[in-house]
Fold this sequence. Notes:
Elements: H1 3-25, H2 28-37, H3 40-57, H4 59-62, E1 83-85, E2 91-97, E3 100-104, E4 111-115, E5 121-134, E6 138-147, H5 166-202, H6 204-219, H7 222-231, H8 239-252, H9 255-269, H10 273-280, H11 285-293, H12 298-321, H13 333-337, H14 343-348, H15 354-376
Antiparallel strand pairs: 1-2, 2-5, 3-4, 5-6
Helix pairs in contact: 2-15, 3-5, 3-15, 5-6, 5-8, 5-9, 5-12, 6-9, 10-11, 12-15
Amino acid sequence: MTEVEAATRLETAAAEEQADQRVLVASQWQLIRWRFLQHKLAVVSLAVLVIFYLVAIFAEFVAPYDPYIFREDLTLAPPHTIRFIDPEGRFQLRPFVHPFEKTLDSVTYAAIFVEDETVMQPLGLFVRGDEYKLWGLFESDIHLFGLQDPEARLSLLGQDTVGRDLFTRIVFGARISLTIGLVGVAMSFFLGILFGGLSGYLGGTVDMVIQRVIESLRALPTLPLWMALSIALPSDWPVVRTYFAIVIILSTVGWTSIARVVRGRFFALREEDFVGAAELDGAGNLRIIFRYLLPSFMSYIIARLTLAIPQMILGETALSFIGLGLQAPAISWGVLLKDAQAIRVLALSPWLLLPTLFVVVSILAFNFVGDGLRDASDPYTHV
């Protein structure tokens, strides 16, 4: 063995020993974080979700227009082509678009949009446009991007059936479609942990009653149950009240699966020494459940929560798409997809299906993050 090989082996052994020492002194949450960061797809998906939620939070600033303002002359206008090469073949550092000219087909009388290549409308960052109130507090007219001419209209992802900017409405729709998953899952998990914890920790009659209720709810078909409860909502309710009603409906049966999981875990943990010590210390049932038992498998709960959010998003999207969820003037991805129900409109304007892309991307991102958290939830099996 040469001196170089011997030195390399010594360095490798020292690095492995240092890594082992690092693992031995690390907390469980540190191990979970290290394991999660090794899951590259989960990390990328988490970054995508962070961007989505930041866009939803700052929707008024990110969106170039007011989501309710329409232009009749741009009804079902296609997406603009962002260009860098001008008609004379010269490269332009600043991107631009050509405005649309609307004409009618002489045979079908269908609207045709043709770009006027004699006019260039440059894009810019932090441009002035429609006035808004960010979070209802801060007045401004500065938007993240748009055309420098405030009278012009950028059709980034096309226009809808009444001439409203589709990209703007997708951005605002993310605010409801993404938050309804968080609020609904939070409610479902609270109920699941509460009733599952009481069932698993107390057992006996309490366990029997809660399990019979769970079995009754799980025996009901989910989609028809959501439809029946949605139909019961008054049609004249304001958007905010309808929003929270949909959240409650989606949470009605969502808590049963996590309750079963928590019950099984509590059955296995309630005889442990730390539970007996808490009981001798005078801790009540709810304190033992939430303070001692639940943290012992909190990482698993977080992974399950992440995987449950896409179900809530799909539930709201499906209900709104078939007309039983949120209704206009509310803006969600499901409401936007209602415009894509007409085959004729969809055949001529396929960009109306673009909200589906954002639904799919967000659900895949949540699933990948959930997979990463699930793999990292028991870090001691990977060290």
